[in-house]
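User: Before I run my own analysis I want an independent prediction to cross-check against. Here's the chain; please return only the structure tokens and, at the end, one sentence I can use as a sanity check.
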Amino acid sequence: MHTEVHIHGTVLVRPGVAQNEIEQALAPWLSYVDIDSLAEAKSAHQDEPGIVFDKRRRMLEICWTGWVGRNFQRSLEAAFEALSPYSEEAAGVEVTYYQEDGRDEHGMVFVGPTAEAIQEVQRRYMLEDMKALLGRHFGDAEIGEVVGLVNQLFDRRFAQGAPVRETGVPERAFRTPSGKKHLH
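Assistant: Structure tokens:
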């Protein structure tokens, strides 16, 4: 069974990184979809650029949709782990699986030069999501309390040496039957 997946995000890379290094890092992903280079990394949707490396701006821009199977998530995570040493700063890349039964599974894959940088971007994304969700029902003081607790959890988790690359897709993904595709 094949599933449609959309991957969207931007990764700033270190100065001097060449396209062939990016392709080498992304090899698990590229190999999975049976392509050899970024030039071939076109999206299934013509209005999306695919996977594009802008050397001048040092940006890897991803807006790619394709059909994948069960083991794709592992290939994607391996690719982003290999890309991490080339990244200038941490970034979250959105991954959305569109299941045949109408469920959408949303998650993130993180890339960054250090575990600490990845943890901080994970924390930032979570706090932004939480503030938006809580803001519908609570005031700033109550939101501040929850933010403080979440910051404590992140600090404790990192102090204990817990892995920071966990993405939670698809097993622990936030699931919603929205049916809305490719909203950026």
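Sanity check: DSSP finds five helices and six strands in the chain.
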